[in-house]
Amino acid sequence: GKGDGPGKEKKRKSKKKKLEGEEQEKEEKKREEEETPGKSRKRKSKEGGGEKDNKKARKEEEKEAENKWKWWEEEKKEDGVKWTQLEHRGPYFAPLYEPLPEDVRFYYAGKPLKLSLTTEEIATFYAKMLDHEYTTKEIFQNNFFHDWRKEMTSEEQEIIQELAKCDFSEIHKYFVDKSEARKALPKEEKQKLKEEADKIQEEYGYCILDGHREKIGNFKTEPPGLFRGRGDHPKMGMLKKRIMPEDVIINCSRDSKIPEPPEGHKWKEVRFDNTVTWLASWTENIQNTLKYIMLNPSSKLKGEKDWQKYEVARRLKDVVHEIRARYRADWKSKEMKNRQRAVALYFIDKLALRAGNEKEEGETADTVGCCSLRVEHIRLHPRLDGQEHVVELDFLGKDSIRYYNKVAVEKQVFKNLQLFMKNKDPSDDLFDRLTTTFLNKHLQHLMDGLTAKVFRTYNASITLQEQLKALTNSEDNVAGKLLSYNRANRAVAVLCNHQRSVPKTFAKSMEILQTKIDAKKKQVEEAQQELKKAEDELEDSKDAKAEANVKKKKKLLKRLEEQLARLNVQATDKEENKQIALGTSKLNYLDPRISIAWCKKFGVPIEKIYNKTQREKFAWAIAMANEDFEF
DNA sequence: CTCACTACTTAGGAGATGCGCG
DNA sequence: CGCGCATCTCCTAAGTAGTGAG
């Protein structure tokens, strides 16, 4: 193994660029906020002070919020310095392996075989996944078997030569039963388990940052297991090793209580770096990259960064027209590099594509973003479905999620793409002269803090704002307004290509809906026939009674048709949402102040939009946005 | 420029929990 | 008051983007 490199020299990060302008902007926002009528806000946050000035004792949550750290009302730290005090208990380690009971056996070539502890543990990783699709994949099997054999004793290596002869079924059953037994536990037992978990959370799940108790995001080390990559990952099935204290670097403040490593163990290193936000880190053995223990999204460190992200996106709003004019001009640039950059930027802006850094081949699944698109990922149609200059994009993006889109583009773009593809193989880079670094250098020059990803944030947020404006009807009731909100949110999710796998129960509930539709259709048909009959009768008799009957039947038909239409809309809605995930954009791309302003403007309770966790994450925005907020 | 390394955000799936309904 | 589905929480993989050495 080459994964262990102890005693390497560590470097400190240098300070980041100045952001004075931004700070000023924030100061202004604050003052603006404080002028708004309603609750008066305090300058300083209270720390455990039992002041009770909130006479109109509202909900508990609000009382709780009273104790929360209103960091956004404080002065910002010197650039690059993330904290002055950081104290925590270190990570909570995954429990050690518990050997299987004697009667749960592993079989090789039909015969029971007692495994060494390590070998058995790894066998359980595979056994647990037996009914997962992963274990049917050859790469997964090969990687697993290779890594497993490496950990076996020489006797075991001698015997266990083929994965196909391994029988894990008893082990598998053991874990299935175990999990079922857990589910069937009586209430009080479950309660006890929960209390234990809460205690761990209480002890390890928080840290002290600059005098405030802050929630940690992931305070547990990742347990050992088999690596589960996404998509066609070349490393799927490889053994992810157990993290020991000896692998872990602790970061905290010098004068804090240094966390104790578990009994009989030592930390790899303890450092006191206040220019970073992480509390602990280790190197994982699959990709040889660092993993970190960091704070929860509700924390100051994360919240401030999030806020800053949206402020950068808002600054883009002011210059985006110039930038667009600039890249359109660059479509004609004499420099091929600049032309490629201009076309790529157009895609990033128009289609909200990711930047697309280069990746090491064979290390990860074959996915691309904008700058790493290959010729094989696009098709050019001079005309298609009545449109001119259509580009068909089809590629796997982040998490191996497919991006498929047919989009009409400007003639210049189309011509450029033809040029970029000329004399190239399908597997060649479309933008062969372009890297994300080059693109971002250019963007930085156009606007301070601008990078490719800002376009996604900007376009997502501005789309939400525009869609909300277009779709919300103030006459609607709350449910109707929420529907509009979800539609606006969905427009963003579609733009950003946020997908989910089709819910397991989808087909079933769709079927129920379809049955309803079919029944309704039949009713409509019947009503049509009856109407026809009534009309025929009227033809014959021409009396008032028959005429009234025709009217009645017409009315009925109309109502049924409307009901059918509504069901169809519902089905379309459901179908459209089938593979769309709204959560990612809500959490990462939509400036929360847009949603909060909308809630205030239309009298929709914020809880209808954001659940508790989300409200904690966006506490800064809830505190500062009023109904006039404009992104 | 490339490469190695670092630090951070963004992402979908699995499993846990909660909630409305009969 | 349990059951089945929807929502929430947790987990950790997979991106973006920066730095600095050579």
UniProtKB/TrEMBL annotation:
Supply the EC number(s).
5.6.2.1
Annotated coiled-coil positions are 510-577
Pfam families named among the record's database cross-references = Topo_C_assoc (PF14370), Topoisom_I (PF01028), Topoisom_I_N (PF02919)
**For bias kind Basic and acidic residues, which ranges apply?**
26-38, 46-67
- List the protein's name: DNA topoisomerase I
Protein's UniProt keywords contain Coiled coil: yes
Active site, UniProt feature:
589 (o-(3'-phospho-dna)-tyrosine intermediate)
Q: Does the keyword Acetylation apply?
A: no
Substrates-to-products reaction catalysed: ATP-independent breakage of single-stranded DNA, followed by passage and rejoining
Q: Which SUPFAM superfamilies match?
A: DNA breaking-rejoining enzymes, Eukaryotic DNA topoisomerase I, dispensable insert domain, Eukaryotic DNA topoisomerase I, N-terminal DNA-binding fragment
Q: Supply the gene name.
A: LOC113990981
Q: Name one GO cellular component term.
A: mitochondrial nucleoid
Function of the protein: Releases the supercoiling and torsional tension of DNA introduced during the DNA replication and transcription by transiently cleaving and rejoining one strand of the DNA duplex. Introduces a single-strand break via transesterification at the specific target site 5'-[CT]CCTTp site in duplex DNA. The scissile phosphodiester is attacked by the catalytic tyrosine of the enzyme, resulting in the formation of a DNA-(3'-phosphotyrosyl)-enzyme intermediate and the expulsion of a 5'-OH DNA strand. The free DNA strand then undergoes passage around the unbroken strand thus removing DNA supercoils.
Which keywords does UniProt give here? Coiled coil, DNA-binding, Isomerase, Topoisomerase
SMART domains noted in UniProt: TOPEUc
- PROSITE patterns given in the database record: TOPO_IB_1, TOPO_IB_2
DNA topoisomerase I eukaryotic-type domain residues: 226-603
**GO MF annotations, alphabetized:** DNA binding; DNA topoisomerase type I (single strand cut, ATP-independent) activity
For this protein, the record's InterPro entries field holds: DNA_brk_join_enz, DNA_topo_DNA_db_N_dom1, DNA_topo_DNA_db_N_dom2, TopoI, TopoI_C_dom, TopoI_cat_a-hlx-sub_euk, TopoI_cat_a/b-sub_euk, TopoI_cat_euk
Family from the record: Belongs to the type IB topoisomerase family.
Which GO terms fall under biological process for this protein?
DNA replication; DNA topological change
| Stored Gene3D superfamilies | 1.10.132.10, DNA Topoisomerase I, domain 2 (2.170.11.10), Topoisomerase I, Chain A, domain 3 (3.90.15.10), Yeast DNA topoisomerase - domain 1 (1.10.10.41)
Q: Where is this region: Disordered?
A: 1-67
The residue ranges flagged as biased composition, category Basic residues, are 9-18
